[in-house]
Amino acid sequence: MKIAARGGTRRLVRRAARDESRAQSGGAAAARWLSPVTRAQRWLSPVTRAQRWLSPVVIAGALVVGGVARSADPASVVATQGRFEEGRAAFEMRCDQTTSELRRLAIPVMPGTTFRFEVLQRGSRRRLDARVEATAGTLTGTVGDYRWSVPADPGFAEIRIRTASPPDSMSLLMMVLTPLTSATDEHLGGYRLGTYPAQALRGLEVYRPPRGLVRVEAQDVERWVSPHFQLGQFLCKQEGSYPKFLLVRPRLLQKLERLLGRINREGISTPTLHVMSGYRTPFYNHAIGNVKYSRHIYGDAADVFVDASPQDGMMDDVNHDGTIDKRDAQFLAGLVESMFHESFFTPLVGGVGTYAANEAHGPFLHVDTRGTRARW
Ligand SMILES: [Ca+2]
């Protein structure tokens, strides 16, 4: 969806920003009574533990042990050199409405469908010959133009793309969704989901209920969804046992990776961002007093902060003024803003909100990719 200059759209954007703002303050209030659980989850989460204790070298080792990537593969060299690597390949992959050069990217697909993707020279429409492999399903296609038959059963599969010229590789984590139609009594696979609003906000496509969600077992939380983010970082904070379900959209991952790269180029060394809140089920979203159209339930919003030095579960003093407050969130918002006129940013346009600390949380930044510009 394009940004339109018509008054109706501007009103909508302002309203969406207000809704999100109200949602966040409601969420903060609810977080106060949920805070013991949240704190426990922070310390018990395998992903958080890994981030807290594992050095980049150990993370690289875990990747090899986990069989996610091989050490000789460019896709696995991220964070092994002691300096920040953006994790971008020398070619592009284009599918549906996404164009990406990230060496890792998770893509949600509905079971039993056909996923078409192209392998392109960066910044051009020229197709490149590639060697493509998939761990499940069937791949067909010719030079740079491929089709993958998505398996009928929900789960994860990997598509690996290798090009000879330029020599590089890419790994797509294909997340075969569990259709939302299989939810009964507001539950999906025993996980409490609640109900998505049946009517899209103002009829907008981005506010239609998702067609399916990603089923996540305990062993899935460390799957890499992009070069510097893992699946578990986006899980809803609601209580419950596995399997859990979530949605994380490629555009959000692309935006977070752009922001992370921008932060590191600013001289702030951090291997990832702390995702305070990623996906929220409609049930959890409602329970914490949020408005029903929050971008978090659609899988393209994240509340984040930099937590690298020290790693203490709080925002760092990223603007180096000796205090940790809303101005640190505003500093990060400024970095997002600085990319606004870059061509790559056009499909990543969305909301940016900054929040001050309260008794439940420190300052943080909200970003989403709703398709229209919203600021608060
Ligand atoms: Ca500061």
From TrEMBL:
SUPFAM superfamilies: Hedgehog/DD-peptidase
Top-rank lineage group of the source organism: Bacteria
Domain Peptidase M15A C-terminal: 251-309
Protein known as: Peptidase M15A C-terminal domain-containing protein
